[in-house]
């Protein structure tokens, strides 16, 4: 696959993933968070296992290991996301979580013992300012402060997920890795659901419709094909493309869910999106610049 093709694939993946915030929030109105995750990822795994059974039977040790690692990391990320999303507007949640775009180069800088570029530091400060504005806009919601904290934790974890996906997708079959990842997420989510809440299955046609959208579009397509696209791109490039995710989620939140748009919230949107766009500009050409500590 060419780099252009990989970028187009990841663009579609992040649009699909962005739409998941709205559907997940709606489902949590009638189902506990971990039950949503358990049913969603278990069904996605079963569907993909039927379609790509040959890849699973022939998967290498590297693919199995990669799927296990990503499954654990993404389960942690999704737990933070779901419990935070339950307390916040979907567009706000998506925007804060996708600050992972800024955490990835900071993680890389720490790992390689280099100073982050000045633009990265500036954009991080700008994004933190935006989070502060969004926090003000969400304080009227019950548990808004806790929701902001949980989504920031999801963003920190998501940054590690992006880096791990780049690594494991180059060592094994990305499709097999994606399928195994979903299976691990389904098992772990079910275990947490049974331990912490009353496990619930969808009981209405509306619930099943939203859940099947999450299963087929956001999980079967979104989670499985992200490793495929990232196999041909560096982690920093994938992080840059995640800006598409909050754009999609924010637009859907305002237009479809009729989430209110206050002055503080609008300012927070603008500041964080500005930080992401500034970081996005010519980032790929300068990924390896830095000063040794």
Structure description:
With 293 residues, the chain is mainly alpha-helical. The chain is 78% helix and 0% strand. It is built from 13 helices and no strands. The chain has helices at residues 3-27, 33-51, 53-57, 61-85, 90-97, 100-112, 118-138, 144-171, 174-196, 205-230, 235-241, 244-255, 263-280. Residues 284-293 have low confidence and may be disordered.
The count of β-strands is 0
Distance between the termini: 37 Å
Structural class: mainly alpha
Question: How helical, in percent, are the residues?
Answer: over 70%
In total, the number of domains comes to 1
| Residue-averaged pLDDT | 80
How would you sum up the global shape?
A: globular
Strand content: under 5%
How many helix segments? 13
* Poorly predicted residue ranges: 284-293
Radius of gyration: 18 Å
The profile of the biggest β sheet is: none
Order of helices and strands: HHHHHHHHHHHHH
